[in-house]
């Protein structure tokens, strides 16, 4: 009888330990996204595009100074929208349709776009 109580106590302690461990390891960090309307309201001449729900912006001084390596092509501009701030993925206000979007080897928050022989660096615009 005492052996059965010890087993129940042992399994109960294991269950509590697992509950505590999994409960403590599920911390989630969220980043609020800024939409095209917000970016364009701050600078109506901003050169932006949207990729996977995130707005990317170019002509940021410190980003331009970075030495980045173009990695794989991850998309291309499929729509141009220079009148309405309601953006969809792979839509730009300045880039031409067909501009190719590449990831970079060094940073996940910067994409490189190649269009008409020109290469531009775009930073993901997010609220922290």
Summarize the structure in words.
The protein is α+β, with helices and mostly antiparallel strands. It has one domain. Helices cover 27% and strands 33% of the residues. The protein contains three helices and nine strands. Strands 1, 2, 3, 4, 5, 6, 7, 8 and 9 form a nine-stranded mixed beta sheet that branches. A hairpin with a 2-residue loop joins strand 2 and strand 3. It is elongated, with a radius of gyration of 24 Å. The N and C termini lie far apart (57 Å). Mean pLDDT is 85; it is low at 25-30.
- Rg, alpha carbons: 24 Å
Major sheet description: 9 strands, mixed
What is the overall silhouette? elongated
Q: What is the average of the pLDDT values?
A: 85
Count of helices? 3
- Low confidence ranges: 25-30
Provide the domain count. 1
Summary of the model, kept short:
The protein is an alpha+beta fold. It has helices at 2-24, 36-42, 61-64; strands spanning 32-33, 48-51, 54-57, 70-76, 79-80, 91-92, 100-104, 110-115, 118-127.
Q: What attributes characterize this protein structure?
A:
single chain, 128 residues, alpha+beta, nine-stranded mixed sheet, 3 helices
Question: Topology of this structure?
Answer:
Elements: H1 2-24, E1 32-33, H2 36-42, E2 48-51, E3 54-57, H3 61-64, E4 70-76, E5 79-80, E6 91-92, E7 100-104, E8 110-115, E9 118-127
Parallel strand pairs: 5-6
Antiparallel strand pairs: 1-9, 2-3, 2-6, 3-9, 4-7, 7-8, 8-9
């Amino acid at each position: 009888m005492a052996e059965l109580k010890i087993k129940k106590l042992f399994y109960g302690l294991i269950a509590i330990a697992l509950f505590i461990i999994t409960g403590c390891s599920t911390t989630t960090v969220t980043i609020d996204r800024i939409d095209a309307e917000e970016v364009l309201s701050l600078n109506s001449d901003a050169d932006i595009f949207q990729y996977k729900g995130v707005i990317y912006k170019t002509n940021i001084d410190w980003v331009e100074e970075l030495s980045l390596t173009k990695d794989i092509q991850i998309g291309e501009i499929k729509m141009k929208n220079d009148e309405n701030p309601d953006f969809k993925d792979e839509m730009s206000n300045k880039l031409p349709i067909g501009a190719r979007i590449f990831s970079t080897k060094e940073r996940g928050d910067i994409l490189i776009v190649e269009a008409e022989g020109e290469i531009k660096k775009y930073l993901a615009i997010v609220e922290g």
